[in-house]
Amino acid sequence: METGSLEIRGTRIAYLDEGSGPLVINAHGLTQSVAADRELGLTGWSTLAEAGFRLLSFDARGHGDSGGEDNPAD
User: What percent of the chain has pLDDT over 90?
Assistant: First the structure.
């Protein structure tokens, strides 16, 4: 499992990347985060990884470990 971040238009976006194989992207719900989804058991990460998939989940701008501004225009 790899945690990391990348910068998009001046904002740091945090992600979690694990497994290998065909890519599955998970986007959390409004007001949630990668950590909250995992803690609540909302995603079947281990099942997908064991089935041979690469899993990429990210914290949307202003959520979880990603950066963001209080400016609604962002």
Answer: 47
